[in-house]
Amino acid sequence: MDLVARARRGDGEAFRRLTEPHRRELLVHCYRMLGSLQDAEDALQDTLLAAWQGLDGFEERASLRTWLYRIATNRCLNARRSASRRPAVEWNVPDVEPPEPSRLGEVVWLEPCPDALLGPDARYERSESISLAFVTALQVLPPRQVAVLVLRDVLGFHADELAAMLETTVESVTSALKRARAGLQRKLRAAPEPPPAPGSPAEDAVVARFVHAWESADVDDLVSLLTEDVFLSMPPMPFEYEGRAVAARFCASIFTAGRRFDLVPTRANGQPAFGAYLRAPNGVSHGTGLYVLTLTGDRICAMTRFENGVLPRFGLPRSLPSR
């Protein structure tokens, strides 16, 4: 008896063996659509429960993978439509008076995705399809456009497969895809140069300079690494800063308050990232957040700061012992 037949007869282990090869890619799919790893994990659990309960309805005309993507996509569309997103929080950095933000961001529920969840090939793939900029841009497009764009342009499903998944016509899929591509192009900021390859000497050089500047609180050295239109954001706080001058004032406000940090490297969304640990008088450094860098050539064109609740997802401790 094959695994599908056994699972239909209530064999949970058979169902696990059927679905396990697809769990990681389904989680990443849900993350792209929802922008939050926590929400993506919830959507994946809903998907697997729906698949378990609805296995009798799997007619095997399409592959199991396609059937699971159909369920996952519809669960994500329902989540997008529910609008129950986590709200923005107020500025919460003690003793720091930030400059006036350039604007207030919309996608305050954004969370980083550890590269470890992206699979063993993530380091060798171009990072556009999982980058923070791409995932953020998806969040402000209409839900069905997001579904069509991700399923077609990222995952490579054909238009007729998308039409079946979304219970619509090929013409409707084609129209939605055209609008989604145009909307995405408007939202993404064009980088003057591609980022260096992950783990390359060029990337390592930029990262090393950033670590030295940040840990030594050297604003001038830090600013020399930034592009003219550098972009700083810090979800779930909505403050956003655009431009080297205001970014310099923001970083100076952090260091002038006497805050000094130790950085622990990791990777998020195919990009260099760091756990940030605030040094205390007793020598212990306490985790305050996660920084994710977006590179263009040998410069930093964006930095996103997340709160310290994400550190455990990256295998990072809450604090570092005294040196």
Automatic annotation (TrEMBL):
Classification via SUPFAM superfamilies: NTF2-like, Sigma2 domain of RNA polymerase sigma factors, Sigma3 and sigma4 domains of RNA polymerase sigma factors
A family per Pfam: Sigma70_r2
Segments forming domain SnoaL-like: 207-300
The RNA polymerase sigma factor 70 region 4 type domain, residue ranges: 133-182
rRNA-binding found in the keyword field: no
Annotated GO biological process: DNA-templated transcription initiation
GO MF annotations in UniProt: DNA binding; sigma factor activity
Keyword vocabulary terms for this entry: Sigma factor, Transcription, Transcription regulation
Domain RNA polymerase sigma-70 region, chain residue ranges per copy: 20-86
Subunit and interaction comment: Interacts transiently with the RNA polymerase catalytic core formed by RpoA, RpoB, RpoC and RpoZ (2 alpha, 1 beta, 1 beta' and 1 omega subunit) to form the RNA polymerase holoenzyme that can initiate transcription.
Record-stated family: Belongs to the sigma-70 factor family. ECF subfamily.
Protein name, per record: RNA polymerase sigma-70 factor (ECF subfamily)
Organism of origin: Pseudonocardia cypriaca
